[in-house]
Amino acid sequence: MLIKKGEVRKIGIEVTSRSNQDFVIESADYEITGPDSGEPERGIPTIDGHKIAALFSATKAGTSCCEFTFRIGPEIIKSKINIEVV
Fold this sequence. Notes:
By secondary structure, this protein is an all-beta fold. It has no helices and eight strands.
């Protein structure tokens, strides 16, 4: 994902089932690490059905990574998004 410095954008994922079974995302959180290697930003994203989203503020140029951790039943699943800020 490419974002310009100074933008605030919604970033997220959509979770699908390979077996076409219905499921509920019970809870989720996220962690964003940036190019400055400082303290990561952590928070609770919004869950809308099978979509998980958070707001990202592009304050510094470079590559950031957002890792979503979510729970479906007894499973804990992680998914990463790489964000390039220019």
